Amino acid sequence: MDGADALARFAIWYVVFLLSLTLHEAGHALVAWLGGDDTAYRGGQVSLNPVPHMRREPFGTILFPLITYFSSGWMMGWASSPFDPRWGQAHPRRMAAMSAAGPAGNLLIALTSFIALKASLAMGLFVAPARIDFSQLVQPPAGAPAGSLAYPVALFLSIALNLNLLLCLFNLLPLPPMDGAGIIEGLVPGPIGRFFAGLRRQPMMAFLGLMLAWRFFDVIYQPAFGILLKLLYPDAFTD
Asked: Hey, where are the domains in the chain?
């Protein structure tokens, strides 16, 4: 891969990454605002413009993605959307909806990317690659011109589908500080909800929750990735 190709690959990764985080956090902020908490709205997070989200979390949206990309070949990072805890305590169901809105945004991107890939495969615009990985679910057919837009589009859609499936599932894990813990806290506002609320207020528990989430996540994501491949290429898995 020459320098121009490497730069283009990085740019596509970063665009998809920012789009995914921005829609995730904008979903949180929008549902909170509609539910009566304007904290994130006043901070500019009810927006698909990534700048307010980057300004709030520059390390998680700029520096850490660069570090992880150039050290591992794919991006990790985070953003955040503030909310008023008193609003969450007064309206637990609305807080659960706010928590679910972020993963729902990632699921929307994943579904849109999946539909685009299935349609492109059906029309012959893409074919199955010899080797499938996180950023290459499809490739242009043999004979496609080297400078064709099909190559960056295939990369964009592959990353968008896989990254957003990952973000959706990861954030739904019921461990603080993941959104799954906020959903449980809002839907079960009794002792269990108060237990999760207490955990979410402890910075050390947030760190431990992230560590546990990464240990358990592979158990969840690998079967999900297998199902994704069966849906994308059903003929390859028939007896």
From this structure: 1-81, 91-234
Place of tokens 């909800």: 193
| Contact between 39 and 32 (Cβ < 8 Å) | yes
Residue 88 contacts residue 95 (beta carbons within 8 Å): yes
**pLDDT tens track for 62-118:** 999 999 999 988 898 889 999 998 999 899 999 999 999 999 999 999 999 999 999
pLDDT of 9 above 90:
yes
Residue 167, H or E segment: helix 150-171
25 is catalytic: yes
Burial zone of 44 (CB within 10 Å; 0-12 exposed, 13-18 middle, 19+ buried): middle
Q: Exposure pattern of 122-131 as b/e (b: 16+ CB <10 Å)?
A: eeebbebeee
Q: For 36, left (φ over 0), alpha (ψ -120 to 50), or beta? A: left
Selecting among 23, 25, 61, 161, the annotated active-site residue is 25
Inter-residue contact 212 to 107 (CB < 8 Å): no
Enter the pTM of the model.
Answer: 0.91
